[in-house]
Structures are given as structure tokens and as C-alpha cells.
Design goal:
The complex is a heterodimer. Chain A is 18% helix and 36% strand. By secondary structure, chain A is of the alpha+beta class. Chain A has a single domain, classed as 60s Ribosomal Protein L30, Chain: A. Classes of the chains: A alpha+beta, B alpha+beta.
């Protein structure tokens, strides 16, 4: 029996086939799907903000992009994954309300990408930006990311 | 006071009362707009996290309309009205003489009508706070997003996420004709502004 594992806000989970990882209704948040192509272990993180300000909230590592990506990689490594084989697909980072200047969503995506670069993880696909919410589902069997939206259709990466 | 968690009982009841008066004003405005009697329930003030909020709103994927207004001048922060599908359709149908049944059918002119409602409702709330506190509070033009509840809530969650996971919101039901309308309002003054509101009311 395959299970649906729900990842909350500022949360992460690691799963193996045949389970599916899901995180609902990302707005400016970013969902990071990591997949070890050899071990076939997957991880999904849902980050809220790019980085903690003034070093406060340091106990909430899953909330911030600058700490959550590395934490997820570490969780996968503890299960035997090798960084060399981990690839990434990301989604989210929308700007829900037409605000001026750089939106939090945009900054979230930027920090997630720079973290992936720093950790030498290849980014295979992304569905980021724009102004609509996304539900992200990760099929650990196929290593595919499924995006569902309200009225903007579904996509598979 | 750097997050909403450590508000004491007195401060909570002050905020409830503000919500009450604001909602009273809003109900009056709504009655004018709808040319119908509008009754309201006693508002419930809650301080909860985003996930709990999404559950109250019918789950993270439930589609609704969020109308965002920023507070400026003496008080900084935001107001976010969350109106469900039924409420929006009812408003558009009454105001624009249309017959829509879902948010997908809403026209541009329908959207701007909803924004205007947001303008009027937020004005009603803010004038209540302004009158009680003597503070000068400005409002920006409303912005609207029609999307999944979770995605809309990510906006206040991210804006206030650095100081905690809690949101301050007021829930109330409006009754007009046969329909009961659920509306939720997030009032999110920045911590300094919340302090200022409390000080102006002599509650510290």
C-alpha cells in the first residue's frame, strides 16, 4: 500500500517508493523535491522564508531556505544517499499579491537555488514565480513532480 | 511585545472589542451596499498558526478570495479579508446583476467590485480603530488574489514569519436574507504598532 505523506509548512519528510510526498498550496513558499537516482530515496521540504533575520529563530531550521535545503540533504544522507546522486526539482515562490519590489517568493527561490549550487545538487526542473498557488506532489517511484493549481491546470516535471 | 503569543487576557479583549466595533461598522456598510438587512454574529478573536487557519478556511486547497490592504502612517501592518466563494458570488450577483456560481466565472468588473467591497470593509474596520485610539491610520489600495487558501495565507505568514508562526484573526458570520456568509479577517499590526494601539487605549 502506498502512502501519501503530507509535508506541512516549515517541515520536511523523506520517503521511499511507492509512497508519495505532498505539500499543499504553496504561495510564496518554495517546495524542494530531492531525489537520489541510485537509492531511489526522495525528500520534500516546504520553506517559508529565505533566511532568518539577526540569527533569531535558529531552532527552526526547516523554515528557512538557507538552512532547510542542507538539512534535507543531511536527512537523506543519513539513509545512505550520496550527494553526487541527488537531483532537485523545485516549485512555488509566487507573488500572491501585486507588491512592488522584490517579493519574498522571488527571494525564496533565489536562496534555494544558491543553496543547491553550494551543495552541488543539480536542479533538473522548476515551476516558480508568477502569481498563483501550487500544490506539489512528488512521486517517489518515478521521481516526478506534479503541480496542481486552482484554475491554472496541472503540470508534470 | 514582539509576537502575538504573549498578549494577555486584557489585551485580547481589547482587540476583540475593536473587532466588534469594526465588524459593526462593516455590517452597516454591507447593508447599504446590498440594500438589505445584515445581521452579524459576535466576532471571535483567535491567535493561531497558518495550518490551523487553513483548516478553518476549509483546507489549504479550498479556493477563496483574499483582499489585502496595508495600513500606513501611525500604524503599520496589514488587513486581509478572506471571503468564501459563496459570499463573493452573492456580492457580484447583487452588485453587478450577474448570475455567477463560482469564482472562475468572475469578470474583471466583478473583481473590481469585490476590491471596492474590500475597500469599504477595511475602511469600516480602520475607522473603528482610528476613532478609539485617536491614531491616524492610512490604507493602501486593495489587492485581490483568488486562489487556494494556503497560498493566500503564505503572504501574511511570510510577512510575519520572522517573529513567530501565529496569526491574529477575527472570524464572524454575516447574515443577509437567507444566506449566512462567513467572513474572516486577519488583522496584523506590526508588533510596534500593536504596542502603540495598546498604549493609546491605556492598556499596557
Amino acid at each position: 500500500m502506498s502512502k501519501l505523506l503530507v509535508v506541512g509548512i516549515s517541515d520536511q519528510q523523506v520517503a521511499c517508493p511507492p509512497d508519495t510526498l505532498i505539500t499543499y498550496a504553496l504561495g510564496s513558499c518554495v517546495g524542494i523535491c530531492l531525489f537520489d537516482t541510485m537509492r531511489r530515496i526522495s525528500g520534500l521540504a516546504h520553506v517559508l522564508l529565505p533566511q532568518a533575520i539577526n540569527g533569531c529563530n535558529r531552532n527552526e531550521v526547516y523554515k528557512f531556505a538557507d538552512t532547510a535545503v542542507e538539512e534535507l540533504v543531511k536527512s537523506m544522507e543519513r539513509l545512505g544517499c550520496a550527494r553526487l546522486h541527488i537531483v532537485a526539482k523545485i516549485a512555488g515562490g509566487a507573488n500572491m499579491f501585486a507588491t512592488t519590489g522584490r517579493s519574498i517568493g522571488e527571494r525564496n527561490v533565489e536562496v534555494v537555488k544558491s543553496e543547491l549550487r553550494r551543495l552541488n545538487i543539480r536542479l533538473l526542473a522548476e515551476d516558480t514565480g508568477a502569481n498563483y498557488g501550487r500544490t506539489v506532489e512528488f512521486d517517489t517511484q518515478k521521481g516526478s513532480m506534479i503541480i496542481k493549481t486552482a484554475g491554472k491546470g496541472n503540470k508534470i516535471f | 511585545m514582539n509576537n502575538y503569543d504573549n498578549l494577555d487576557e486584557l489585551q485580547m479583549s481589547v482587540l476583540s472589542e475593536i473587532g466588534n466595533i469594526g465588524a459593526g461598522n462593516a455590517a452597516t456598510s454591507l447593508a447599504h451596499i446590498l440594500a438589505d438587512k445584515v445581521m452579524m454574529s459576535v466576532p471571535v478573536l483567535q491567535i493561531i498558526n497558518v495550518s490551523e487557519m487553513a483548516t478553518i478556511l476549509g483546507g489549504p486547497e479550498n479556493e477563496l478570495a483574499g483582499i489585502l490592504v496595508n495600513m500606513t502612517e501611525d500604524v503599520q501592518g496589514m488587513l486581509l479579508f478572506l471571503l468564501d466563494q459563496e459570499f463573493i458570488c452573492m456580492l457580484v450577483n447583487v452588485l453587478m446583476d450577474e448570475h455567477i456560481q463560482s469564482l472562475d466565472e468572475i469578470s474583471d468588473i466583478g473583481l473590481s467590485a469585490i476590491m471596492e467591497i474590500g475597500n469599504i470593509l477595511s475602511g469600516s474596520y480602520i475607522s473603528a480603530i482610528s476613532t478609539m485610539t485617536g491614531l491616524n491610520i492610512g490604507l493602501t489600495t486593495p489587492q485581490i488574489a483568488i486562489d487556494m487558501a494556503g497560498a493566500i495565507l503564505s503572504y501574511p505568514a511570510a510577512q510575519f514569519g520572522v517573529m513567530g508562526d501565529k496569526l491574529l484573526f477575527i472570524a464572524e458570520d454575516f447574515l443577509s436574507g437567507d444566506s449566512a456568509i462567513k467572513s474572516h479577517l486577519l488583522i496584523m499590526p506590526e508588533p510596534k504598532s500593536l504596542q502603540l494601539i495598546m498604549e493609546s487605549l491605556g492598556v499596557c
